[in-house]
Structure prediction request, 514 residues.
Amino acid sequence: MPALPTLLIHGYSAESAGISPGQIAETYGTLPAELRQRLGSAPSIINLSRYISLDDGITLDDLARALHTALLTEQSALMRSAASFNIVTHSTGALVARAWLLRHSPRPSPCARIVHLAGAIFGSGWAHIGKGQLTRWARGLFTAAGESGIKVLSALELGSQRTIDLHLALGSTGNRLWADLGVREACIIGSQADRAWMPVPIRYIKEDGADGVLRVSAANSNFIHAKITPTAKGKAAAFDDALAHTHSGPPGDEFAPLVPVDDEADGTALYRINFDLPGSETRPLVPLAIPYETAHGGEKRGIVSGSQNREEVMPLLVDALTAGTTDAAWAQLAKRFDRATEVTRRRAAQTLAPGLVEVFDPREQYDEHCMLTCRLRDQEGNPIEHFDIFFDSPGSLADPATSSAVPPGTIPINSLFEDHHVPREKGMINFYLRLTSFHAETGEYVDLREELAETVLRICASEPGTSRITYLPIAVRLSVAAVGKLLQPSRTTILDITMPRLGSGDVLRIVSSP
Prediction:
C-alpha cells in the first residue's frame, strides 16, 4: 500500500530553537530520514510540526486549535479529502493530536492513521513534580540524555480531569475514532528506563513497566472505563441508612455483592458496577507494541531516534503506517504487535540477567502493570474531597515478593500496589499495580491475578465541616471476573464512583404552623 504523507508532532518542551526547516528537523533527530528511506517516498511526504509548549499561558486547546489553523493554511493539501495523511506523535504530541481530532477534525477525518511513539495518553508522574528546582534539575538530566527537557502542562498530570474527559469524549457517539472519524490508532512504547538514571531518587525515572517518563499503561489508549453507581435502593438511602452501614459487624459479614448494572433482581445491593471495555464494535482494539530495550528518550535507546534500537522500533512504525485500515487488516496488525511484545519479553527474560554489582533486575522492568484512576463524585457530580479507599484481601498473608511459588488464592491484592498519586484536582486518586512478576527460578513472567485471594473494596467519605452530612459508604466483594475486568495488564482503568451525599433530618425541616 503506498505511503501517505506523514505529519510528525513532537513532545512537550522539545520544540526547536528556531523555525527554519533545518532547525525544526533537529527536534526529530534521524526519524524523518529513516521514514523516507523505509517508506521509499519523496522528501515531501514527511511534514514536521513545531509548537510552543514552554509558554505558561498556552493550553492544550490552544495547541489543538493552532494545529488546525496550520493544516488549513500551511498544509492545506492534507485537508482536502478523507484519509489523506498519517500522524506520528511523541509523548505530549499524542494529546495535541487527540484534542485536534475531537474538536477540529472533519468527519470523516483527513487523518487515516495516528501512531503514538510513547504517547502521553494518561500523563506522566513527572508532571506532578512542579515548576521548581527539581523540575529544572530533571530538565537538565533529560537534556544530557538526548531530550530537550520536561516542562509540564496541567493536562500531563496523572489523572488530569480534562485529559480523561478528552479520551472519554473520543468514545462518544459522533466522536469515535474509527466509527465516526475513520481514524485507526496504534501505540508503541518501550519498557526500559536508561540504567544510568537508576540511582536518581525519583520513582518515575525508574519505575518497572515504564520507559523512564511514561508508564506503558498510561501510554495505551486501550483503557477501561468502569462505573460504580448506587442502585435504586442506594439512591433511596437516607442519612440513618448510611450510618447503619458503617461496617462495624463481624469481618466479612458487612460486604455486599457488587452487582452488574443489569442485575438488581434481589434488590439488596446498594451499588452496581458496569464496564466499558476495549475490543467492542464501537471501541476496536488499538494495537500496542513494546519494543526491546527502548526508553522515552536518549541517544542510544530513545524511541524517536535511538541509535541502538532502530530495528526494534522502525519496523513496527512502518508496519502501522502502511497497514490496511479495514477491520481485518487492523486486527492482524494488533496480532503482529502482540507477537512483537512477546518476543521482547522472551528476550528480556533470556538476556537481561543482572550483573554482579547491579541492584536492580532489568528483567523486572518488563513486568506488566496497570494504572487505576479513581474519580469520586456525589449524585450532583460534585467532587468528594475527603475519602478513603481500601482494596483488601482479609486473611491473606502471603507476599509475592518473598515467594516464587505461591499457592492459589493466597496473594492479597494490597500487595500488588506499588504507588499512589493524589492529583491537584479534588476527588481523585491514582494507583499503580504490578500484575505480572518475573520469577528468576522459572525464567517466566507470572500473572499475579491468578493467585489473588478474595478481594474486597471499601470506600468511605466524610464532610469534616459538619456532622449533619455523610455519604453512603461502599463495602463490597469483588468477584474474580470483576477484578479481571477492572485490572488489566498494560492498561489504565478509569473508575468513576458516585456516592450519594446525605443530610440528616435537621438540615431542613418543614412543619405546620401552630
